[in-house]
Amino acid sequence: MFTEAPAAPVLEDRATEALQGGVVRTVVLTAAGLFFTGMGLYALAAPARLVRPFGIAVGTTPGRSEVRAVYGGFGLAVAAALFWSATTTGDLGRGVVLAVAVALAGMAAGRVISRVFDAPAAFYPTWFYFWVETLAAAALLTVN
After folding, report:
1. Cβ distance 127 to 114 under 8 Å?
2. Which residue in 24, 21, 136 sits closest to 75, CA to CA?
3. Nearest one of 79, 139, 129, 82 to 108, comparing CA atoms
4. What is the pLDDT of residues 13-38, one digit of tens each?
5. Which of 67, 53, 31 is nearest to 123 (CA)?
6. What is the pLDDT of residues 66-110, one digit of tens each?
7. CB-CB contact of 109 with 133 (8 Å)
8. Where are the domains of the chain?
């Protein structure tokens, strides 16, 4: 009449599967991909506006081209890679997710290093994006 509860290892296996191959992984990768898509499209459409909160003035054609390349083109490429990785659990997809997570962690670390050399910055945009990058890197590593 009554069945025994599954053993703890079975529950752990199911939790790992849900994180690394299930809905949670897909949601995290899709959310990160949407963030990079938004950033990329915004950079392509309005490069000067994208970097203005950081105190960067982009008044030249080469400057706008640089923002469009680094934030726009690169951002859209990362988004495409994350969207593709959301459809697979293979080693290549996991490698893509690891690379994006490490890149985000490196960006966050760069903000901390900058704090060592520069005066304290206001919470926005510097520390806001530090937390976005840190939490996104942690989420990607967790589901990978």
Report:
1. no
2. 136
3. 129
4. 666 665 556 899 999 999 999 999 99
5. 53
6. 999 999 999 999 999 999 999 988 999 999 999 999 999 999 999
7. no
8. 9-143
